[in-house]
Amino acid sequence: MSNPTLVREADAGLACCAPLAGEPLSAEQAAGVVPMLKAIADPARLRLLSLVLSHPGGEACVCDLLPSFDLSQPTISHHLKVLHEAGLLDREKRGTWVYYIARPAAMTALGSLFTPAAGPATASAGGGC
Amino acid sequence: MSNPTLVREADAGLACCAPLAGEPLSAEQAAGVVPMLKAIADPARLRLLSLVLSHPGGEACVCDLLPSFDLSQPTISHHLKVLHEAGLLDREKRGTWVYYIARPAAMTALGSLFTPAAGPATASAGGGC
């Protein structure tokens, strides 16, 4: 919230690149990704994240997202706030609207959970991990 | 629960191969994966799934998993049941113990959510999708 700069780089702090099938996830690693999983374990929020990711430019404002839901703007804004607070979306205020963009590091961290352990390709998902 | 056969093939019914970044996830697709996300949005269950996946042979019984947790056997069994009911683990009774194995189709469905949309490599995750 305090940093308006969009974070497009992988965050070193995220528990990324730890496939579930690799070696047993530690309690610390689990604690790092569970808040993100909780945030998307909701149909509206999972669809919102998908809409942001698939929107031209990979970013969207509430105004872009509202037509896809039978939900009020405050409700959509609340769900976006939950995704933001879980570290899945960054946001940037431009004039009247707040634009949301998915954090690549979060996507990498979540995706790498389900990467098969075999094969060194796992490490190629992000250079920063 | 009723079928003791381990399901190692991709399930056609799962909402797999639908990257969040591809096109907006439909409400039906979201409804298909949210129960799995809810199940693993818990540190103990996420670690249990990781332990099963990373255990030799990709399968484990409660007896294998118990030493890694400061939890009772009934609690571990409860968490495994939740993972089973969410479609993430299959189980098979052998003598005294029930063995759990991750369902590849579920892993593929979850992993494909976070696959970057660009590039045809997405389709190679599973031939059945």
Automatic annotation (TrEMBL), chains A, B:
Keywords: DNA-binding, Transcription, Transcription regulation. It comes from the Bacteria. Residues 25-122 form the HTH arsR-type domain. SUPFAM superfamilies: Winged helix' DNA-binding domain. The keyword Lipid metabolism does not apply. CDD domains: HTH_ARSR. GO terms for molecular function: DNA binding; DNA-binding transcription factor activity. The keyword Membrane does not apply. This is ArsR family transcriptional regulator. It comes from Nocardioides perillae.
